[in-house]
């Protein structure tokens, strides 16, 4: 129990029963403090009392002060319980119910939290307490790189893993960079071909970041910069070709576009390939091309039909020559014709026996010389 007179500390009493003479009109107050928590909450009040009653404050309180580049951690019962920020002080009860210990962290030499302290932070569930205000945590996945900025100054590149840093009186920012192949795409880019035809082009560029600090340091918005460079390359490739050339050999266009992107020598990334996904023609141009294709296909069909008719006529001519020179072949043709006729006739009346069928029903007369 703390007894104050007009805000000034007069006495501190521990566990027990007391009878106090409190004269009227002196603005006397009795404050009860929980000594199970070693930290006294009202630091400002203790600082005032230390000026007027230094001996009394020194008897019951311990002042712990952290320097400009120091962080004080205090443990209660062996468990991390809180911290003292740089350039601040905190008062502890000397008669605290639970023992406490103070550990100093030097922020000047390193902000990285070692594995032992990480275990203590996790055991204290730091993310659910005030300790979360002074711990900066981030994770770098596999096939990624981590870029850490301390007070806007880039630190060495970090590989995959978990990282804990003290963030007291420091500005920390982490950026995770994906090192896997990535894609930059352009949709519906309107371009003018060499023969003055307006086209809409969809293009893609596949790349991979090889040096993240270099790639990010050169440009404020690296993705937008790559997008614009791909636009310039497409205009150079498409603008130098006619519509027929663009539609004739797409692989050659892809190869030329890839070479144009690699020739830019973009630092920090590696261009694997680039290409045109789609070339969209205006409606009237598509109609004209449709009619051209229909005419070409129709002409091709007519040529094929004429070739087939010529071949059929030639086959008939050869067959007629064989039958003219060979009576047996002529007779076989008559029987073949008879077979086809009888397949389509439901009923046949025959006179003269088998000879009437074989000789009278079908008879191919050979021309007389």
UniProtKB/TrEMBL annotation:
Domain Band as annotated: residue spans: 135-293
GO CC entries: plasma membrane
CDD domains assigned: SPFH_eoslipins_u2
InterPro entries: Band-7_stomatin-like (IPR043202), Band_7 (IPR001107), Band_7/SPFH_dom_sf (IPR036013), Stomatin_HflK_fam (IPR001972)
Compartments (UniProt record): Membrane
Domain of life, per lineage: Bacteria
Membrane topology designation: Single-pass membrane protein
Family as reported in the entry's similarity comment: Belongs to the band 7/mec-2 family.
Stated name of the protein: Band 7 domain-containing protein
The organism of origin for this protein: Eikenella longinqua
Source lineage: Bacteria, Pseudomonadati, Pseudomonadota, Betaproteobacteria, Neisseriales
